[in-house]
Amino acid sequence: MTPIALAIEPRSQVDWSPSLTLLLLYLGIAGTGVACWAAATASRLLPAVTTSLGLLATPTAAIALVLGGVAIGATDRGRGDRASGLTGPAPSRILPP
Questions:
Q1: Which residues have C-beta within 8 Å of that of residue 43, sequence separation ≥ 6?
Q2: What pLDDT score was predicted for residue 97?
Q3: Per-residue buried b or exposed e for 13-48, using 16+ beta carbons within 10 Å of the residue's own CB
Q4: Residue 76 in 3-state DSSP?
Q5: Is 31 helix (H, G, I), strand (E, B) or coil?
Q6: Dihedral of CA 7/8/9/11: which sign?
Q7: How many CB atoms lie within 10 A of CB 80?
Q8: Between 88 and 13, the higher pLDDT residue
Q9: Residue scoring higher pLDDT (75 or 54)
Q10: Are the C-beta atoms of residues 43 and 35 closer than 8 Å to each other?
């Protein structure tokens, strides 16, 4: 897909500021280095089947969390009373101290 994207999409300029460079370095170290270390440690300490199932279940769990968040947002749960601007439980459910 990269050759197709390079052929079709227009070239864009990237503003290589110091903060962007530091963020990319941080994400590269945290996202790649720590993940590889965690996978190697899990492979060393756990049985192969457990490690394999854990690594295969991670994307599935992430998709479930994202879809759950979308479902909560789409059903308007957890936002409180939008008309009054209040958040939290409905006034009729508040218990006296």
A1: 51
A2: 57
A3: eeeeeeeeeeeeeeeeeeeeeeeeeeeeeeeeeeee
A4: coil
A5: helix
A6: positive
A7: 14
A8: 13
A9: 54
A10: no
Task: Give the dihedral of Cα atoms 80, 81, 87, 93; nearest 10 deg.
Answer: -90
Q: List Cβ neighbours of 72 (8 Å cut-off, separation of 6 or more).
A: 78
Residue type for position 75:
T
* Chain length of the chain: 97
Is-contact 42 51, C-beta < 8 A? Answer: yes
The residues that bridge with 81 in the sheet, in sequence order, are: 86
Contact yes or no for 41/47 (Cβ under 8 A): no
Phi, psi of 90 (to 5 degrees): -65, 150
Written as six digits, the tokens of 72 are 């909560």
Nearest to 53 by CA among 67, 44, 63, 42: 42
Residue with tokens 């009729």: 92
